[in-house]
Amino acid sequence: MTMPRPEDRGARDVTGLLIYDPAIAADRAHAARIGAAFPRLTALPLPHGGHPATGVLAQAGRIGKLAEMLVEDRIDAAAIRRDHREARRKAEPYRLNLAIAALPRHPARALPELRQLARQGSPRGRFEAGMAMLDHAEDEAMALLGALLEEGPELPPGLLNRLRRRLVDRL
Asked: CA-based angle 9:12:14, to the nearest 5?
């Protein structure tokens, strides 16, 4: 069944923010299509925040501030950008996404951050950092991923399947 196009069903003159992560190709593409269909939306890129792009703000407990802006119809894109910039320094997903993006061109700067996250991050952060290191053929990646698995955190089956496929591909 064909999915209805939002611009055919909604008000094309709607205003508001279109928040997206420009470091994610799919987010960029979706933002471009939505922006073309709803030209009065203001695009607000929040780089390396992940999907959803407001994840860094949520982790820092700042979604309430964003919600207040929406409810009170006083959206301040500059304030949201400032909040994101301030919150991202401490946000593991931001550090992880930035290190992964930097890895191909700046491995000397990215690898120490990935190593730290693979040792001390949340189970998901440790897994993602280890996988990035594995993709970059870092010798330490297998040991760090193995340590994570030995500690026994409950990783979702999808993550374990990714690891299995990656290891099979390497054989």
From this structure: 110
Measuring CA to CA, which residue among 19, 7, 23 is closest to residue 100? 23
Query: Which residue in the block uniquely carries the two structure tokens 């909040």?
Result: 83
Q: How far is CA 104 from the centre of its chain?
A: 18
Token representation of residue 111: 């690898």
Q: How far is CA 152 from CA 20, 103, 160, in A?
A: 34, 28, 12
| Radius of gyration of the CA atoms of the chain, in A | 19
This model's pTM is above 0.85: no
What is the H or E stretch that residue 113 is in? helix 107-120
Q: Is 48 left (phi over 0), alpha (psi -120 to 50) or beta?
A: left
pLDDT of residue 171: 72
**pLDDT score of 6:** 67
Rounded Cα distance, 133 and 119, in Å: 12
Torsion region of 154: left, alpha or beta (phi above 0 gives left; psi -120 to 50 gives alpha): beta
Q: Cα 68 to the chain's mean position, in Å? A: 23
List, for residues 23-55, the tens digit of each pLDDT value: 999 999 999 999 998 999 999 999 988 888 888
Please give the average per-residue pLDDT across 108-115, as a whole number: 96
